[in-house]
Automatic annotation (TrEMBL):
Location of the CheW-like domain: 23-166
Key words, A-Z: Cytoplasm
Protein name (Swiss-Prot/TrEMBL): Chemotaxis protein CheW
Biological processes, Gene Ontology terms: chemotaxis; signal transduction
Any Pfam family hit: CheW
Length: 174
């Protein structure tokens, strides 16, 4: 894995829809040793770690906000939200800035902190196995897909967009 030296833009090229099989692409990233993926079309950019401006009385997983070209973007640490650990910030730690709609249909930008970026995960849509509701965090998971070195958990963007409301309510799953 290479270190990022600055902001890295992601192009949003659509794939050829004339194929009879639908392929999906996800940006692979690591939280600890676990591989996760998020739809590549929902990624605005990847940024090297920068310390956000703190927000008083916010939930533990809310790191603060950053100024992204004049836009204030909340930053959430998925390592804390998913695993309840207080992680270190290493040279490979990045902020993935997502653009999507929340459950109310509002377009939002949020940044999620992860341990590092991995390869692009490409799989056919039918290779993503939906996860039954096992925990309160299941709403974040679209499904699981097999990769050559194990499993990858595919995240759904919409619940991540709702983390803003969750943090405002002071809500934190136990």
């Amino acid at each position: 894995m290479r270190e990022l030296t600055d902001t890295q833009q992601i192009s949003h090229n659509s794939s050829d829809d004339t194929q009879s099989t639908t392929y999906r692409e996800f940006l692979g990233f690591l939280i600890g040793e676990e591989l996760y993926g998020i739809n590549i079309c929902d990624i605005e950019e990847i940024r090297v770690w920068q310390t956000p401006t703190l927000i008083p009385n916010s939930a533990d997983f809310v790191m603060g906000v950053i100024n992204l070209r004049g836009m204030i973007v909340p930053i959430f640490d998925l390592r804390i939200r998913f695993h309840r650990i207080r992680p270190d910030y290493q040279p490979t730690t990045v902020i993935i800035v997502l653009k999507g709609t929340n459950s109310q249909g509002d377009t939002k930008h949020v940044g999620v902190v992860v341990d590092g970026v991995a390869d692009v995960i490409t799989c056919m849509a039918h290779e993503i196995t939906p996860l039954q509701r096992v925990t309160s965090l299941s709403r974040f998971i679209e499904g699981i897909t097999r990769q050559k070195n194990g499993l990858a958990t595919i995240l759904s963007t919409r619940p991540l967009m709702d983390l803003t409301e969750e943090s405002e309510e002071g809500f934190c799953d136990q």
